[in-house]
Each structure stands twice: as structure tokens, then as C-alpha cells.
Specification:
- The structure holds two protein chains of two kinds.
- Chain A is of the alpha/beta class.
- Chain A has one domain (about 1-180): Fe-S hydro-lyase, tartrate dehydratase beta-type, catalytic domain (fumarase, Alpha-Beta Barrel).
- Chain A has helices at about 30-40, 80-85, 100-105, 120, 160-180; strands spanning about 1-5, 20-30, 50-55, 60, 65, 90, 110, 125-130, 140-155.
- Chain A is globular.
- In chain B, the strands form two sheets. In chain B, strands 2-1-3-8 form a four-stranded mixed β-sheet, covered by helices on one side.
- By secondary structure, chain B is of the alpha/beta class.
- In chain B, helix 4 (about 90-105) links the parallel strand 1 (about 75-80) and strand 2.
- Chain B has two domains: about 5-25 and about 70-145; about 150-265.
- Classes of the chains: A alpha/beta, B alpha/beta.
- At the A-B interface, helix 4, strand 9 and helix 5 of A face helix 3 and helix 6 of B.
Chain lengths: ~180, ~280
């Protein structure tokens, strides 16, 4: 297990798809609406070395009570400006397509957090602030301090995509068996 | 016959609905947890084992802290059985909706219910046709909730196969999972409907998710093994276990039809039942 702390630097270049890591430090949640807003109005935090978490948490007062990952593929076409600005880590579930694998090369990694594990995530989080609260609870950008969040490197900075590989193998299995797909 | 608008009964139904949701959202049913533990025991891929460890830690944290298993608290689906002396009325439907509103505010649940075209959120997880309600005759008045997340519902499929191609049912099931990959948060449970009508088969496939998953008949096991041969694994990161179980429900159908539906359910198969006592 490799322990990483934000902001991330060149240490991410030593990660490979399939590595299990933990992440500590500040992460910023962002879903569809927040991506659109940041693209138009600018990123409200220092993006250099930052980690963006695809998550729409349930927040009660000052506390995060549930914060599992949402499906990252929805943000495929909304990711380039973040990487260009210096974001070096994206956390989510299900992996990303639409050229994101190429976008990350030499610059950033995609980290998978176990889908549905909202209580586990919340147990390792401390709420620090919020940007764009008017977008509503699920779509706002929440500033969260995380403590040893357990993650898997899904896509590394060298074009290796664990999700893509698994998907291709499943497709090949299906083809061999039923001659379709 | 009970007066259909008996306020005490309606309140009891609303409370039972809210109670069942409160239970389902924080505590996974025993059969589901047993299946996840058993799957963890059989999984050999180290990344997949790590995913199982996270899932098991999450289940325990949610149960002990009475906190939400998943932040996608789902769209409310309610299965109702009514004894002979309780009629199904609009007031009863409204009592179920009231239970959903109470749960949304008290637990609290994430407001997920929106208008399909304007996408405007109703704010309380109810709306036209939601909660989705299925009614069956029974001996007692029971309220079973099955809150369903979007990730797995979105990759569910329905097919009208050629009636001569019964052997393609298996292919349809396996293809559904292959196309879904990691999106539905595997390890999944598959509810498979075979037969009935276009609308009926979709209902059957979801009802199959209410069946305990401790046992599978030989056909269900065959489907489950074929799905696991895909190697998609927990969260689509690769592994031995893609499906925890497959459950099948059949209905008779037109001689010229073969409807098949696969309702994909993420590992967090949240369901709970409450019995409402009815005066004789």
C-alpha cells in the first residue's frame, strides 16, 4: 500500500494501474454542474496538484454523512480544462473514456474508490468548506480533508487503463462464447 | 371490510413505509451480506479482494453508526400485500407516499426524484408514479421497500427475443453484464424475468430481486457462472466475482413472443419489510 498526500506532485508518475494506495489531504468534490460552472467561471481553488472527487455527498450541517463516488464517465468531456490547469488526481468510479486516458499521460492519474461505500468514505472525512453552494448539495464543490482513503489506480500516467483492459477481456469472452458484441 | 380512509390504519402504513426505508438504507439484508462474505472467500484477485474489504467495512460502519450504506439512496419502490379486509384505495397510495416523505426528511435521504423532462427535483422523493407501487393479495398487510440506485437501474435491459430462440436467454443475460462493465457497481445481483408481456417481464425481473439469494436453482447457477466467467470483477477492476447471484422469475407468454428482462442490482441490494397489524 502506497500512502499519498495532497497536493500531488511527480510521485504520481511512479504509480501503475492496479496499485493500491491511500490518499490523505484536501480533495474537491465536483459533478456535472460544478464542472460546467468551473469551465465557464474559473476554478475556485488552486488546481496545481489538486485532486477532484466525482461525488455528490449527503451533508448534514457541518458534517459529511455519506460520500461515495459517482459514475465518472459522465465527466469524460468535461475533464480537459482541469488537467490543463494542473489537477493531478481524479477520484471516481467506473473509469473514464472519451480520450481521458490520453489526457492523463505524463500528468495525472485516475483513482478508483469502491462504489457504494458512502459510510466508509464519510468515516475518513472532515468538511472544510464549500464553493458554489447555490448548485445544491449534490452538485456543489465541497472542500474535504480526507484521511487515508483506500483507492486503486485505475488509469496511470502512462496510458494503462485497468477498466479498459477488463472491459475488452469481457467483450472478447462474450464474442468467443456467443459470437456477438 | 375496513373503512378505506381509517386514519389510524393510514398512519400505520405511512410509519411502516418510513420505518422500512430507515432499515433498508442502513442495514443490508442478512442473505446479501452472507453472499458478499462468501464471495470474498472465493475471490483470488488482490485488487478485487481489496474492493470486497472496503464493501464489508462499509456495511459494518453503516450498520453500527446507523448511517447510509450509499449516498444514492435510490428511487422508492414499494411492494404491498393486502389482506382480504383492506381495500386498495387512493388514500392508501397517499399513505405510502407520505411514508416516503417522512423518511426523506428524517433519515435523511437524498432527494432523487425529478420531473423526467424539466429535471426539476420534487424535493421529497415522491411524484407522479413514485413511489412505484406493486400490490398483491396476501394474508397480512406488509410493506416491502426496495430503494433502487440509478447506476445499476440504468444498465438494466429488456429484450423481445424470437420465440424459437430460448437458448438466447443466457446470451442476453451475459451480454447485459458485459455491456454494463463496472458501471452498476458490481458484484451485482441479477433479477431475470422470462415470459409474460413487454411490461410484465420488466416487473418480474425486479420482483426477482426480492427473492433470498442464499440458493440458486441449476439454471440460475448456470447463468451466474457464465456471468462470472467475464472476469469484470468488483467495480469493473477485474476479478472472479462479478455476480453474487442470479434469480429468475417466469410468467406464461404469447406463443409468438419471448420477452426477457434483466434488472441489474448493485451489491447494495437494500430491501426491508414491515408488517402492519390490522384489526379484525
Amino acid at each position: 500500500m502506497i500512502d499519498l498526500t495532497t497536493p500531488l506532485g511527480d510521485e504520481i508518475l511512479s504509480l501503475r494501474a492496479g496499485d493500491r494506495i491511500t490518499l490523505s489531504g484536501i480533495v474537491y468534490t465536483a459533478r456535472d454542474e460544478a464542472h460546467l460552472r468551473m469551465q465557464e467561471e474559473g476554478i475556485p481553488f488552486d488546481p496545481r496538484g489538486a485532486v477532484v472527487y466525482h461525488c455528490g455527498p449527503v451533508v448534514a450541517g457541518e458534517r459529511i454523512i455519506a460520500a461515495g463516488p459517482t459514475t465518472s464517465a459522465r465527466m469524460d468531456s468535461l475533464t480537459k480544462f482541469l488537467i490543463d490547469a494542473g489537477v493531478r488526481g481524479i477520484i471516481g468510479k467506473g473509469g473514464m473514456g472519451g480520450g481521458v486516458v490520453n489526457l492523463l499521460q505524463g500528468k495525472a492519474v485516475y483513482l478508483a474508490f469502491t462504489g457504494g461505500c458512502a459510510a466508509l468514505a464519510a468515516s475518513r472525512m472532515c468538511l472544510k468548506g464549500v464553493h458554489f453552494p447555490e448548485l445544491g448539495m449534490a452538485e456543489a464543490v465541497w472542500v474535504i480533508d480526507v484521511d487515508h482513503l483506500p483507492l486503486v489506480v485505475g488509469i496511470d500516467a502512462y496510458g494503462n487503463d485497468l477498466f479498459g483492459r477488463v472491459r475488452e477481456e469481457a467483450k472478447a469472452q462474450c464474442q468467443a462464447r456467443f459470437h456477438t458484441l | 371490510m375496513h373503512h378505506p380512509d381509517d386514519p389510524a390504519l393510514l398512519t400505520a402504513v405511512a410509519d411502516a413505509t418510513a420505518d422500512a426505508l430507515a432499515e433498508a438504507e442502513v442495514r443490508l439484508p442478512d442473505d446479501i451480506e452472507r453472499a458478499i462474505r462468501s464471495a470474498y472467500g472465493r475471490e483470488r484477485n488482490p485488487v478485487a479482494r481489496g474492493e470486497f474489504e472496503n464493501i464489508l467495512a462499509n456495511i459494518e460502519l453503516a450498520r453500527k453508526g446507523r448511517s447510509l450504506i450509499c449516498q444514492d439512496t435510490g428511487i422508492p419502490v414499494v411492494y404491498l400485500t393486502l389482506p382480504p379486509n383492506v381495500p386498495y384505495t387512493r388514500a392508501l397510495e397517499e399513505a405510502l407516499a407520505r411514508g416516503v416523505r417522512i423518511a426523506t426528511e428524517k433519515i435523511p435521504l437524498r432527494p432523487n426524484t425529478v420531473d423526467p423532462c424539466t429535471r426539476k427535483n420534487t424535493g421529497d422523493n415522491t411524484g407522479p408514479g413514485i413511489p412505484a407501487i406493486r400490490v398483491r393479495p396476501g394474508e397480512r398487510l406488509t410493506v416491502t421497500v426496495l430503494p433502487k440506485g440509478a447506476g445499476s437501474e440504468n444498465v438494466s435491459r429488456i429484450g423481445m427475443l424470437l420465440p424459437t430462440r430460448t437458448s438466447e436467454v443466457k446470451q442476453f443475460v451475459v451480454e447485459t453484464v458485459a455491456l454494463a462493465g463496472g458501471k452498476p457497481c458490481p458484484p451485482v445481483i441479477l433479477g431475470v424475468g422470462i415470459g409474460s408481456t413487454f411490461d410484465g417481464v420488466a416487473a418480474l425481473s425486479k420482483e426477482a430481486l426480492l427473492l433470498p439469494i442464499d440458493t440458486m436453482d441449476p439454471f440460475e447457477q448456470e447463468l451466474c457462472d457464465a456471468v462470472n466467467a467475464l472476469g469484470i470483477g468488483p467495480m469493473g477492476l477485474g476479478g472472479d466475482i462479478t455476480a453474487l447471484a442470479v434469480k429468475v422469475k417466469k410468467g406464461a407468454c404469447h406463443t409468438a413472443s419471448l420477452p426477457v428482462a434483466v434488472n441489474v442490482q448493485c451489491w447494495a441490494c437494500r430491501r426491508a419489510t414491515r408488517v402492519v397489524e390490522v384489526r379484525k
